[in-house]
Amino acid sequence: MEFVIFTVVYAISFIMSRAGLYILSGILLMAAAVALSIYYYLKYGRRVCPPAVFSISWIGGVGVSCLKLSYLETDWESLSWIAFYLAYAAFILGYKAVNAYAVSRNKETVVIQKSSESTDIKIAYIMLNAIAVISLFSLMAEAMILGYIPLFTTDTPHAYSYFHVSGLHYFTVSCVLLPALSALILKNELEGKTFSEISVLKRADVTVCMGLGLIIPILLVSRYQLFCGILLAAAVMLISGGSRINIRIGIKQLFAAFVVMIVMIMLYVFITYERAHSIEYLNGIFEMKNKAMPIFISQPYIYIANNFDNFNCLVRELEEHTHGLRMLFPVFALSGLKFLHPELVAFPIYVTKEELTTVTLIYDSFYDFGIIGVFVFCFIIAAAAAIIERRALRSKGDIFAILLYAQISIYLLLSFFTTWFSNPTTWFYFGITILGGILKIFSTSVTTK
User: Fold this and answer.
1) Residue 277 in 3-state DSSP?
2) What is the DSSP letter of 195?
3) Phi-psi region at 293: left, alpha or beta (left = phi > 0; alpha = psi -120 to 50)
4) Which of 21, 335, 393, 426 is the most exposed place for a label (fewest CB within 10 A)?
C-alpha cells in the first residue's frame, strides 16, 4: 500500500515539475522521503535500515534536485523520471524479496551467539595496525614522489585531485576504515569493563590508529575521506548495538551527536578553505539563481541536486550503451588493464558543467544497459544489502560482517553522490574487509583443529 501511495505522490510531483511548480514538486518528494524513511524504520525496527536509508537519500535527493535553484538545472527528460522511480522500486522489491524468502525458510533476523569473539578481536587488531602502518607509509611515499602534501600547499584548488600515484593511493586512503575498526574493537573490549581496565598499550594503539584515520584525510584535504571515516564509525556502533531500535535517546547521546555535527561542519569549512575554494569561485561554478545564497547552503545543494541533472544529460546525449564496460571499471583499474588497453575506459562523461563531475548511483548502470540495467542493478544491490544485513545482525560478534554492512549502508546514504559500486576504491575497501573475514575463518578452523 505504501508504494501505491508513493507512486501517486511521485506522479503528482512530475506533473507539478512539468507545470513549472518546482518548489512544490521538490517539497512534495522530500516530504515523501521522510515519510517513507520513518515507515520502513518502524516496519523493520532496525538501527540501520537499508530501505529507510535509501528512501531518505534517493527520494530526498530527487526532491532536492526538483527545486531547480541553479541555472544549471533544466526540466528532466521523461526517461530520467522513469529511471529515478524504477531505481527506487527495484531496490525496495529486492530488499523485500530477500526478507520474504528468509522468513519463509524460518530464518528470522535474530541475534545469535557471538562467533569466535577472541579470534575476531585478534584479527581486527592485526588488520587495524596493518592498515594504519601501510596507509601512513603510502602517504609518505606519495608525498616524496609528488613533492608535496595537499594541506601544505597554497592557492592550489585541485591539489588533492593531482595527489595520486597509481596503485599506491588505494593504500593511502584505506585509512578510511581505521575509525570504524577502532570503534568496533573498543566496543568489544569494553563489554563488562571500564575504559581504564583496558591495558594502556591497547588504549594507546587504538587511539593512535583512530587518530591516523582522521588526520590523513585532513592532510589530503579530502572531505569525502574524512566524513566517510566518521560516518562508518557511527554506522558500526549503531549496527553492533543490536538489531532493534531503542527509541529512548538520552541527553548525553543527543549532546554527543550535536558535538560531532558541529565538529564535522567546522572540519568541512576548514578543508574547503585549505583547498583554496573561495566563495566567489564556488558560487561562480554553481550558478545559483539567488546570488546571495550562503555557500554552506549552495554547496551541499549543488552536490546533491546537480548529480541528477548530470544523469539527465546522460539520458539526453548518450548515443549508444557500453554493455557492461562502465561497471567493470574496477576490474580494469585494479588489474592494470586500463593502462594496457585504455580504450576499455575511454568513454565520455555527460555532465552539466566540466567542474561538476559527480553523478548518481545509477549513472553507470544506465550507461551500460539503459533502463533495464538500472532496474536489475538496484535489485541486486538491495538483495546483497539484505543478505549482508542479516548476517551482520545474526552474528553480533562478527566484526567484519558488521564493517561490510556499514560500508554498504554509507554508500546507500550517499547514493545521490556517485557510482559507488563502479568505483575501484569501494571494491578495495570491500576487499580489505573480506580479507579480514577470511583470515578470521581460517584462524578459527586452525584453532578448532
Assistant:
1) coil
2) G
3) beta
4) 335
